[in-house]
Amino acid sequence: MRLSTLALALAFPLVAAAAPTTIPDAAMKTAAELRERALADTLAWEITEGLTTEVGPRLAGSEADARAREWMIARFKALGFDKVWTEPVTYPKWVRRSEHAEIVSPFPQPLALTALGYSAATPDGGLRAEVVAFESLEALQAAAREAVEGRIVYIGTTRMDEKAGRGYGQGSQVRGRGPSLASSKGAAAFLLRSVGPEDTRLPHTGVTRFEDGVAAIPAAALSNPDADQLERILKRGQPVVLRLALDCGIEGEYTGANVIAEMRGRSRPNEYYLTGGHLDSWDLGTGAVDDAAGIAIATAAAHLIAQLPKRPARSIRVVAFANEEAGLYGGREYAEKHRKEIARAILGSESDAGSDRIVKLTATVKPEARGAIDRIAEALAPLGIEYDRNAPGAGGSDLSAVHAVGMAGLSLHQDTTRYFAWHHTANDTLDKVDLEQLRQNVAAYAVAMYLAAEAKGDFGSKPGAFARKP
Amino acid sequence: MRLSTLALALAFPLVAAAAPTTIPDAAMKTAAELRERALADTLAWEITEGLTTEVGPRLAGSEADARAREWMIARFKALGFDKVWTEPVTYPKWVRRSEHAEIVSPFPQPLALTALGYSAATPDGGLRAEVVAFESLEALQAAAREAVEGRIVYIGTTRMDEKAGRGYGQGSQVRGRGPSLASSKGAAAFLLRSVGPEDTRLPHTGVTRFEDGVAAIPAAALSNPDADQLERILKRGQPVVLRLALDCGIEGEYTGANVIAEMRGRSRPNEYYLTGGHLDSWDLGTGAVDDAAGIAIATAAAHLIAQLPKRPARSIRVVAFANEEAGLYGGREYAEKHRKEIARAILGSESDAGSDRIVKLTATVKPEARGAIDRIAEALAPLGIEYDRNAPGAGGSDLSAVHAVGMAGLSLHQDTTRYFAWHHTANDTLDKVDLEQLRQNVAAYAVAMYLAAEAKGDFGSKPGAFARKP
Questions:
Q1: Which of A95, A117, B242, B364 has the fewest CB atoms within 10 Å distance of its CB?
Q2: CB pairs under 8 A between A and B
Q3: CATH class of the domain whose range is B94-250
């Protein structure tokens, strides 16, 4: 036996001996009981109803945002969480006061639109300018400055349309990058078609971002019927002049907070399953599907687990994240603050895609923990949840930054058909939440969180564990 | 033979001999051709698209209302109608400038509402008052003045709900009579839940009416989700204070016009089939289903008939009625002006329930003309239109007054499911119009109008003919 062979023989068993993470059979039995109890639970509904009714819209940085934190702290305490605290999150404070648009010529009439987050205001008395339309960001990029300068740039190819293969990501690119690109070419303002699938006059907001050194300009989304109308008028070939009056903009910095509650584990309380949703909402609706429901699902699931006769080994930590909408501020702050001790966050799942049924499980964990995820999938199957064993699962929007610094992720993918019709619009209200589907979500979260918290072995969380390959 | 018997013998044949109105076989053949041509026609779409795009919202008495008349006159002329004219219609001019509502306490947040037609404005700076809710007009009627005085009266039982058996008529009663009743008891304002079936944040407007001697007060409709929200908050039992700021009201009188176009008949041109729709719309949407489509259907059907190698015996008259929405002003003016010569209007059908498929035919005609209606029903059957031979048919909203002074009526009832979801809201826009269903409407109108205009004999129109029995 040569030395190299000996070395290999010594080394290989060490690698192979990295013990697989397992789920005890007793835990599977408890999970099945949790699942049934969750399907009859009403706490998630009560939290969704309470937050959307008693606080309502809660734009990050607004007075209502502060009331939402107080509401959430009180609710966590009333539910008996072992520890409730906040961690500050600072971000630019953007405000929306009023918004109005009209076609001045050739066919005077109002248009329904809504400013994008971080949009600048129009000058006092509003802004009048001619519209110039582009088919895409690439076409705008290719345009000469003279074709853009002083005009209102419009891109209308952002409607969500499954038949045409256009989704939310594609439209969000235009929303995120279009205003800055238009401004860099001297545009007076930027308009896009709502990034949504609905023929409703309620426009879809969302955040945009101006690159360093590029002046913020007024930027807004037309509802789909209004975008249709503008396009019909543009097609007639006469110059189209709009008047925009947007009273909105950044007003300094604001320090809000992530609101955090923990249910202590039985034997390894310093390790925790990380779950939650985001506490802020856009101001147009009451943020029921985006994301009161998410907070409610995570909280109700944690609460059910806390009621068990025997707690799981590890803790459950619920975070109501600050200012997700304008740029994942709460999630990024959490990742930064907890980066060094990220191994303590054994696995994470956030709920931020509405309240409709969970249809699929995916996860990103170390290979030795795949068998434990298989067991979680087995416990979720009675809820009609499929398991895609090969797809990644980063755990949700606010957890993307936490995953990026090394937390293992488990994603419970919802049916988002109705979510994309309503979120970011005035239609995001409680009537859109379906109690039975909400309960199925609670059941799935309770099962996954409990089993992971009770697992023998970890899921691979450690600093830098899941960094993307360059 | 006694003299009396002789008289009876002479008289009886006269009564029996009142000749039945008939439809010639050749006309049935032409109607079948018209039907097929209508199903491939695009004129109704072009008119709907043109009026909603080039004029847009056209509140009666507004500057856009005047533009709509010019647009319609030009369109009728361009289509080659033999005569195009206007007949003045005068009414109170109501304007809407802005509207805003919010919950002041206990849970501050905005509410989506829209003022009702003829609502008064709130005082400068808005109105703050506590809400008092009633289950019905009867409950409000029974309330003591002290329970109402200075408060905002709310009635929330007005949602359209087929399962609960509540329809548009029931809600419209509350809308029409509630504000005046509340004002008579000293209420500061009146709110109701939108008279519509949709969970959308777009409230449903419509007209109200203050009785003589009763002061107009601010009156508005909350969207259904906002009404739900208000009710959830009221249920919590604390006093609920709202702030309303409605800038709207009556600004003197306005004289608009019915815009009328006629296609001359071959042999009896002084007699005419009366059809049309209303030219005004509520200002929230572009009035596509209510009622650009109606005008388009009637106009396109008349135009198809005008293109026949041989015109029907009688004329076809299309009326774009003025100010239907605030109280049938155009229809009532037409009835008054043409009352004495109403026998010339042999039969009438107006389209004012959207652009979806016609599902049923009914008519109110003299008994001797029932056989001719049977023949029309036969010609409509291939379009999937049922025939309810026993139900009345007054011809449509604007024609109700004309029918009341003696015009025979034929009603082509549409599937109104989608119509009631959208009309009177900002969602009444062109995207809601379905080309194929619109064409089916044109086919039905063309067939009915042609056959009646070509009938041998009349349908019973004469002054006072169809007056309701007391």
A1: A95
A2: 93
A3: alpha beta
